[in-house]
C-alpha cells in the first residue's frame, strides 16, 4: 500500500513538472505561434478543447487580433456551444469589425441554428463592406432559401455566378430551387425528325406549354401536336416538381392522347431527386407508357457539378419477357453564365421515354440497338427570354441487322413573366 502511494505521488509530481514546462514554453510563444498551434490542434488532432485554450492564451497577448477571435468563435460553433460562440462574435460586432471572415463565421452560426433573420442581418452587414464576396453571397442565398424566399435566393445566386461562374455550390443550389421560384412561363418548341429508311415521311411535332412556379414547386401544362406517318395527333401532359425538403424534391408526370400509334394513350412517371453533399445529385424513378400494352421503364441517374460543368449519367431499364433492355446516356454541360446559358453534349444508347420517339418503344423494337450523339445550346436574354436549339444523330437498328441513320432537330423559345 505504501509503495503504491509513493508511486502515485511520483507520477503526479512528474505530470506537474511536465505541465509547468509546457506552460513555460507556451509563455515564451507569441500570439502567431500560439494561433498556429491552436489550428494544428483543431484541424490535425481534432482536439477543439486544447485549441480553445491556446486561442485564449493568444488573445491574452493580442486582444485585438481579429483572426484569432473569429477562430475561437468557430471553435465554439464546432463544439456545439452556440452561446459561447455568440459571446465572442458579439464582442467583435461591438468593435464594428468589418472583416469578411467574421461575418461569414457569425452568419453561418445563426444559419446553422435556424436563426435566419439574424443570419440575414449579419450577412447583409458583411456584404455592405464586401459586396462581391462569393462566400457571403452564397451564404445569403442559402439563408433566403431556408426562409423560402426562393426568388430572392435565385437573384443572389445569379449575382454570384456573374462574379464567380465556376462556383459549383452556387450552380447546385440554383438548380435545386429553380422550380420553386414564383412566376409564369410560356413556351413553344418545334421538333423535326428525318429517317433515311425506317419511315418514308419526316415527323413534325409542335409543343405549347404553360408553366406556373409556386413556393411549393412548379406545375407545367403542355399540349403536343404531331404529324407522324402522314397522320395528325394530339397529346396533353401535366407535370409537377414538388419540393419535399431541403434535400429532396420530386418529378410527377402524366399524359393522355386519343391518337393511336402517334402518342401513347396514357403515360405516367415519377422520380425522387436528392441534393447530396459535394455538389452531387441522385435520382430514382419510373416511367410507364400505355399503347396496346403497358411499357414499364425504371430509371436512375447521378449528376455532379464541377466549376462551370455539369456531368450526368442516366440509365433506363425495361423488363421484358426474356431479359431486361438497357438504355444509357451521358451528358456534359458547360455553363457560360447562369442556370439557363450552356452548351451541352450527349452520348448514349437506346431510346428513352423523354424523347419524342417514345412510340418506337412498342413491340420488340426497344430491344434493338440504338446509338445516339447530340449537341444542345441554351441562351437567355435579359433572363426572361430563353432560346434553345439541339440536334441529335441516331444510328438505329429498327430490324435485326438492319440499321438506319436518323436526325432529330429541336428549337424552342420560352418567355418568363
In short:
The chain is α+β, with helices and mostly antiparallel strands and 417 residues long. It is 35% helix and 40% strand. The protein contains ten helices and 14 strands.
Strand-helix topology:
Layout: H1 2-27, H2 31-44, H3 48-61, H4 66-78, H5 82-94, H6 100-112, H7 116-129, H8 134-146, H9 150-163, H10 168-177, E1 183-195, E2 203-214, E3 217-228, E4 231-242, E5 248-256, E6 266-276, E7 280-290, E8 294-306, E9 309-319, E10 324-335, E11 342-349, E12 370-381, E13 385-399, E14 402-416
Antiparallel strand pairs: 1-2, 1-14, 2-3, 3-4, 4-5, 5-6, 6-7, 7-8, 8-9, 9-10, 10-11, 11-12, 12-13, 13-14
Describe the structure.
The chain is an alpha+beta fold. 35% of the residues lie in helices and 40% in strands. It has a 14-stranded antiparallel barrel. The longest helix has 26 residues. The termini are far apart. About 3% of the residues have low confidence.
Could you name the key traits of this structure?
14-stranded antiparallel β-barrel, alpha+beta, 10 helices
Mean pLDDT: 88
Radius of gyration: 30 Å
What structural class results from the helix and strand content?
alpha+beta
Q: Residue ranges: pLDDT <50 for 5 or more in a row?
A: 14-25
N-to-C order of helices and strands: HHHHHHHHHHEEEEEEEEEEEEEE
Give, in spatial order, the strands making up the sheet with the most strands. Answer: 1-2-3-4-5-6-7-8-9-10-11-12-13-14
